[in-house]
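Human: I wish I could look at a protein chain and see how it folds. This is the protein in question:
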Amino acid sequence: MSDLDPLDPLLIAEDWRSHGRFVAIATVIDTWGSAPRAAGSHLVIDHDGNFEGSVSGGCVEGAVIAEAQDVIATGHPKMLEFGVADETAWRVGLSCGGTIRVYVERLG
């Protein structure tokens, strides 16, 4: 955990980058149903899998972190979608139902 305000993942991302860490940011683009985080919510992830913030209240963070590490390694952004009506529902999904789309990009 960082000493910075955990409510501001963007400040944490800048701090991590200033210390030489490779960072990606995941942003909730839109939701449908009862997703636990609003559009615009952020999760920042470093190359070691450390993270701050939230995109789903714990429902899909593990999958987003894994994808973010790939984005950091390749530099190619990804649009992720999780929900109860697709193939990911069996391995990761929103416990409260609905869907969530998350955009993941490398910073810097």
Observations:
- Strands lie at 23-32, 42-46, 51-53, 78-83, 99-107.
- The longest strand covers residues 23-32.
- The radius of gyration is 13 Å.
